[in-house]
Amino acid sequence: MPYEEIKKVQQRPHSLTLEGREKMSITGVDDVSGFDENTIVLTTSQGDLNIHGQGLHIDRIDLDAGELELRGKIQELSYDEPARSGSLWSRLFG
Q1: What radius of gyration do the chain's Cα atoms show?
Q2: For the range 6-15, what are the long-range contacts, defined as Cβ-Cβ under 8 Å and sequence gap of 24 or more?
C-alpha cells in the first residue's frame, strides 16, 4: 500500500459542534498554527481551519486526543485544502 493511502487510513475523524455561535468543540485537530482574540488557525485532518470572530479564547486543548474547545463570538469558519504531496508527475497523472 502506498504511503499516501496509509496516511489517509490513519487520519483522525474530524467534527465540529457549534453552540449558539459562542462555544465550539472540534475533534481531529493536529496542531494550532496561530491564535489571537480575533483569529484561530488550526491544522486538522481535513485541512487548515480558520476561525474568525471576537474575543476568541481556547478553553481546552488536548492534541494527543485531537480535541479543542473554544469560546467567543464566532463569525466565520473557512477551510484551506491540504497541500497535495508527491512529485509533479504523480500529481498530474496519479
Answers
A1: 15
A2: 11/45, 12/45, 12/66, 13/45, 14/44, 14/45, 14/46
**Greatest C-alpha distance within the chain:** 46
Query: If we measure between CA atoms, which residue out of 66, 76, 20 comes closest to residue 44?
Result: 66
Model confidence, pTM:
0.76
Backbone angles phi, psi at 33, to 5 degrees: -80, -30
CATH class of the domain defined by 3-81: mainly beta
Q: For 91, phi and psi rounded to 5 degrees? A: -70, -35
Task: Read off the C-alpha cell for 52.
Answer: 474568525
Rounded to an integer, what distance in angstroms lies between the CA atom of residue 55 and that of residue 71? Answer: 8
Of the two residues 84 and 3, the one the predictor is more confident about is 84
